[in-house]
Amino acid sequence: MYTVENILNRIEFLRKKMTEVAMDKGFTDIESVHISQELDLLLNLYEEVKDKSKSDMKD
């Protein structure tokens, strides 16, 4: 199971890595694009987990 902390740590790691790769290889390089796609998935997952967490607190 994913925890909010784990997701946020991975998001922060990927943000840094994407910046490094993009500055080195360019924003349209396949590695930059793959990192960006993974980052998008994690950001969506974070929103889902966060919303579920809020919902669980209300119950």
* CA(first)-CA(last) distance: 20 Å
Number of strands: 0
Q: What does the radius of gyration come to?
A: 14 Å
* Number of helical stretches of at least 4 residues: 2
Shape: elongated
Structural class call reads: mainly alpha
- Show unreliable segments: none
Protein name: Spo0E family sporulation regulatory protein-aspartic acid phosphatase
Organism: Oceanobacillus longus
Pfam families: SpoOE-like (PF09388)
Reconstruct the topology from this structure.
Layout: H1 4-25, H2 30-58
Helix pairs in contact: 1-2
InterPro entries: HLH_DNA-bd_sf, Spo0E-like, Spo0E-like_sf
Pfam families: SpoOE-like
Protein name: Spo0E family sporulation regulatory protein-aspartic acid phosphatase
Entry summary:
By secondary structure, the chain is mainly alpha-helical. α1 (4-25) packs antiparallel against α2. It is built from two helices and no strands.
Structure characteristics:
elongated, mainly alpha, 59 residues
